[in-house]
Amino acid sequence: MGRGAGSSTEFQDHRNYTPGDDLRKLDWRAFARTDQLMLKRYREEVRPTVEILVDASRSMASEPGKAQLAVDMAALITRSSLRVGWRARPWILDDTPRSVPLEALLHEGVDCGSRRPLMDTLGAMSSRTSAGAMVVLISDFLSPHEAESLVGNLARRAGAVGLLQVLGPWEAAPPVGGSFELVDAEGGERIQVNLDSDAVTQYSQRLGRLSDALAEQTRRAGGSFGRVVAQGPLEGTCRSLGEQGWLLAG
Questions:
Q1: In principle, which of 21, 53, 71, 227 could form an S-S bond with 165, CB 3.0–4.6 Å?
Q2: In terms of Cα–Cα distance, which of 95, 94, 88, 58 is closest to 73?
Q3: Domain locations along the chain
Q4: Which position has the higher pLDDT, 87 or 250?
């Protein structure tokens, strides 16, 4: 249902009759009570639109399989939407965000080379998505941002929002032990770290706080947050999202 008046069967409100209005919409019961000619107005029926935004920043290529899982999930959402008669439009969020046909997305994948911060990209997208559409953002969200601002930018014009966090196995659960040189995929900075149990625990806690903040802000906006790891078959990923309440079997 849309927010305006239309031709559905769901009653919205009344308005005064004016000459030329459709007499079939007169509310005779209201006329009997008030001695005024009133028209029934019904909710607008709209064909839902889904905008699927795929993050193409450099961090999405930090581990094998991340970018491909993002493409697979975008394709799943697009095809599922089309199957039930909705409009669906995939977008690639690179330095110049653009919509792409599903076939091109599946054939070419996503070249994760953008250095543009995700928040800047979303700002550029704010006027390009359809007003009232369901907006689904697929990203690792491993870039500087405030969860409230990120979700707020998406929800401002959207009818509903969904966030899907895609992580690599190492990002989701780094191994304990050994020294590593970590490279910031977005900015290129390098740092030497010793992954002892304390370091891994601190990292896991920060990652948990990031995901929890995104989930909370998405919930407040009336949407859903899901988190998946790029490992194993796609069927298992979908089952995990079903357990999280992000996907429903149909």
A1: 227
A2: 88
A3: 5-43, 49-243
A4: 87
State how far the alpha carbon of 106 is from the alpha carbons of 61, 90, 136, 183, 230, in Å.
16, 11, 18, 29, 17
Q: State pLDDT tens for residues 167-180.
A: 999 999 999 987 77
Give pLDDT tens digits for 31-81: 888 888 888 877 655 568 999 999 999 999 999 999 999 999 999 999 999
Among candidates 200, 71, 55, which has minimal Cα distance to 140? 55
Residue environment code for 35-51, b if the CB has 16+ CB neighbours within 10 A, otherwise e: eeebbbbbbeebebbbb
**What is the H or E stretch that residue 214 is in?**
helix 197-220
* Residue in 49, 41, 50, 48 with CA at minimum distance from that of residue 18: 41
- Which of these CATH numbers, 3.30.43, 3.20.14, 3.40.50, 1.10.12, describes 49-243? 3.40.50
Q: Which residue has the higher pLDDT, 250 or 189?
A: 189
Q: Given phi > 0 = left and psi -120 to 50 = alpha, else beta, which region is 120?
A: alpha
Fill in the amino acid letter for 159.
G
